[in-house]
């Protein structure tokens, strides 16, 4: 979009927040760059240049505006809508792969040469992977400076900088303030052992199905709803964490993070954003779906519905398989048993979280005969765990969506519903569609839509590329708890078994 100068100028002059994150405005006369909705008086058009990313603006020599904080905008929705090389690379960079594994590690994960990745990113995003990672480190540093009382040396290394000097130089260059001056200007809401953040999004946002779904399907010991917030444990590259997410009064989600290793800050934020689909473009989604006469009333009733995501693709895949052809309560019970038997214990003072969901390698020794569900599903679980543990199935942020679908489809006992559910929630494919889902078929019947999978798929072609969002609206026609924000604490207590092996909550 940054190449459409006329459209960008109009967005800046009207302070249109819908375009925050789509492009950045650099002002030649002041040397700063802003988000389109910056509250200051817009500069003259001849003094504006436009960049596709904050990293590109920084590379061009501009510093971040102190008023609109362009580094804190929602991310471009393109990177979660697309499955091409650039989008996959941007998702992996957001997940911190360059900081942990370098550009060579990024290239290995994507299956391309470093030179080709550099060329493609520069052509579309205006900066290479190192510059994009540097911009991300600067934002992480700013968050730590403003939301914690950590010594600056600890902030530098937690944000991913190799030295305190490079940390100081980058912060001064990007924000035109020293780290000490940034902290002096801020009013941090600090709680011992926690980081308090705001995760911005593009309005509107309908929180009902988003939080309702996460809480209704919460795994005992791993997730809970407490004091008006969704809480869950996180398995992170350098350690573990707990995230607490609460709808805010403004265009942001209130987020509290407790991390065993602060180097995981960027990754934890990225995964929370993907979980809540916060980088979506609801205007684009609602405009297309609202053009359908059947869906239009649903869109008007609840604009801005999001698709609940996942913080760990492998975890969600196991949970989706456990949920095949059983009720939500039964799926939670099965998952709770796995967690109690194979999960990693965590400490949660004052809360009810007890475990990390078991990683695939922790489940490879699972005896299928001990699982309390049909033999074919036990065998399917064993096959899924095997390909996940061996690395033959990649469900991480930068995975190839179609290849992942193919690997899943080739597994015995894994049907189309499971494949598309994993594509929707774990991979984040906005066009994933589940025409065999009972809730979708009941909604279709109630709305006068075709109910057979083939006919409904043909009818849903008009909803592409947003069929996953259409599914959320179809589900919302029912009275299932996934459609409602909890009004009281819903604490998912660990499951226990009696002598007969029957689960209780």
- Rg over CA atoms, rounded to whole Å, is 23 Å
Query: Main sheet?
Result: 5 strands, antiparallel
**Uncertain regions: pLDDT < 50 for 5+ in a row?**
493-505
Structural class: alpha+beta
Give the helix level as a range of percent.
Answer: 40-55%
Strand order of the largest sheet: 5-9-8-7-6
Based on DSSP secondary structure assignment, what is the total number of beta strands? 13
Q: In percent terms, what proportion of residues is strand?
A: 5-15%
Mean pLDDT: 90
How far from one another are the termini?
51 Å
In DSSP terms (H or I, runs of 4 or more residues), the helix count works out at 23
Instruction: Name the overall outline.
Output: globular
How would you portray this structure in words?
This protein is an alpha+beta fold. The protein has helices at 5-13, 54-59, 78-81, 85-94, 97-110, 114-125, 129-147, 152-158, 164-175, 179-185, 207-216, 265-276, 282-289, 296-301, 313-322, 328-342, 360-363, 375-389, 401-409, 416-427, 438-447, 453-459, 467-475; strands at residues 24-27, 32-34, 48-51, 63-64, 195-200, 223-226, 229-235, 240-247, 252-259, 344-345, 355-356, 496-497, 503-504. Strands 5-9-8-7-6 form a five-stranded antiparallel β-sheet. Strands 3-1-2-4 form a four-stranded mixed β-sheet. It has a two-stranded antiparallel ribbon with strand order 10-11. The longest helix is centred in the N-terminal third of the chain and has 19 residues, at 129-147.
Would you kindly provide a brief summary of this structure?
The protein has 505 residues and is an alpha+beta fold. It is built from 23 helices and 13 strands.
